[in-house]
Amino acid sequence: MKNSICFLTVLLFLFSACSKKINTPLQTERIPTEPEGMKQAESLDVLLQEQARQLSKNIIITDGHIDLPYRLKIQNFKLTKEFIGIPIETDKGDFDHKRAKEGGLDAPFMSIYIPASKQVDGTAKLVADTLIDMVTGIIDAHPKHFGYGRSVSEVKANFKKGLVSLPMGMENGAPVMDDLDNVNYFHKRGIRYITLTHSKVNQICDSSYDTIRTWNGLSPFGEKVVERMNEVGIMVDISHVSDSTFYQVMKLSKVPCIASHSSVRKFVPGFERNMSDDMLKILGEKDGVIQINFGSTFLDGDLQKEREAYHSEIRDWLKENHKLSPFDEGAKEHIDAYQKEHPKKFYSDVEKVVDHIDHVVKIAGVDHVGFGSDYDGVGDTLPTGLKDVASYPNLIYVLLRRGYSTEDIEKMCYKNVFRVWKAAEDYAKNFNQGG
Ligand SMILES: [Zn+2]
To answer: Residue 9 has what pLDDT?
Structure first.
């Protein structure tokens, strides 16, 4: 396989040498007619697409955040005959084994997502356990397709066997409850990162989506949670947290951190859920990684505004014509009808995802960026060219076209995240050996 990449590289080199020659004013050769030039550009494109496809197969691709478990929970998934094949192949959602293989995805972090409502009704830990059981159940039921993703070395070994690893990250620290030993418990259960909170403030820290700032960053208990995460080898995920939480975590954590599914604030001004340039710089200085979220509203501030305007148009129409608000019973039917009659979609595209990657590279460097699609988590907002897990070659193609080297792309696909993951493993190992 490596040979075919070499061959492609040589061909690409010849092509670029050829086009340079054509552009030289002193050339003696015949100047090609326009259709010929276009043909060459098309062939170069085909070659780059093939190179991207090969790369996606030959290198490990990890993704920081895929919401398969929660999607399956909503579908009432159970490991019974009726459902057992769904993780392998389905016409629903953004992830299944077949499409993961097609896209070259080898280690998608399964999100163990705990909605904020579960913080208040006391069931957070129970929900986390149920979702973890689902993921481990899927792996056990399909040993020829999936493998456990409990360490960097396990994921690498699975890759060699052609298995898709399913490492797990917990989205919301609520299941830790008020007991630090639950951090150890979830590590034993296979959790390898914890997103400190989700859409609301919890017992650990403030959230970017919440207007209430109870702690002004981390709570005193949250500080202990971060320390314990370092000690057991769970990566700290700063996606979803408020800015002050981020800065406090950067000071406190002994190990580099990840943002498992965030994008860049520059393109969506004022959106605290994304990272500012200053935060990117600090994350990079601390050797961390931001994994870019593909959701269109994370990518493009104008799209986000247009979408909000469309939603308020629907709200007004609903109120005027049906005396309903969007969450009232029977409202959905009318909303669907309105959307059918006045269809509007707000999709960004794969180029914009690469704009975000370019920006991180400019601010923090190529060692600090990866992919955190949020597949199965952002609904019908995925950008053109990145509609499901079969799409990674499209992303790699655009990266190649923008001049990134194979080495750069390897870093984005897995090396950067594996570096942070390994640092977390090593710190915990030393700590527990009294080092
Ligand atoms: Zn999220």
So the answer is: 45
The CATH number of domain 61-300+348-432, selected from 3.20.20.140, 3.20.20.105, 3.40.630.30, 3.75.10.10 = 3.20.20.140
> What are the domain boundaries of the chain?
1-22+34-58, 61-300+348-432
Segments in 27-113 forming alpha helices (H):
34-58, 68-74, 97-103
Cα 377 to averaged position of ligand 1 atoms, centre (Å): 7
Range list of β-strands (E), 162-217: 164-166, 168-171, 191-195
| pLDDT at res. 99 | 97
Backbone angles phi, psi at 209, to 5 degrees: -85, -10
Helix spans in 189-300 (H): 220-232, 243-252, 277-285, 296-299
Report the pLDDT value the prediction gives residue 238, as an integer from 0 to 100. Answer: 98
Residue 378 has, within 13 A of its CA and on its CB side, a CA count of 24
| C-alpha of residue 281 to centroid of ligand 1, in Å | 22
Q: What separation in Å is there between the alpha carbon of 399 and the centre of ligand 1?
A: 25
Q: Is 281 exposed, middle or buried (0-12, 13-18, 19+ CB in 10 A)?
A: middle
Measured in Å, residue 208 CA sits from the centre of ligand 1 at: 11
The total of other beta-carbon atoms located within 10 Å of residue 3's CB is 7
Burial (CB count <10 Å: 0-12, 13-18, 19+), residue 374: buried
What order do you get walking across the sheet with 258-262 strand by strand?
62-66, 107-113, 168-171, 191-195, 235-237, 258-262, 289-292, 369-371
What's the pLDDT score for residue 96? 94
Alpha helices in 142-242 (DSSP H): 152-161, 181-188, 220-232
Cα(132) to centroid of ligand 1, in Å?
A: 17
**Integer Cα distance of 54 and 7 in angstroms:** 12
Distance 261 CA to ligand 1 centre (A): 7
Q: Is 47 exposed, middle or buried (0-12, 13-18, 19+ CB in 10 A)?
A: middle
Q: Rounded to 5 degrees, what angle do the CA atoms 64, 274, 118 make?
A: 65
Query: How far, in Å, is the centroid of ligand 1 from the Cα of 114?
Result: 10
Q: How far apart are CA 374 and CA 303, in angstroms?
A: 18
Q: Which residues of the chain have pLDDT under 50?
A: 1-29
Sign of the torsion angle spanned by Cα atoms 85, 89, 93, 96? positive
Residue 303 Cα to ligand 1 midpoint, Å, equals 19
Cα 272 to averaged position of ligand 1 atoms, centre (Å):
13
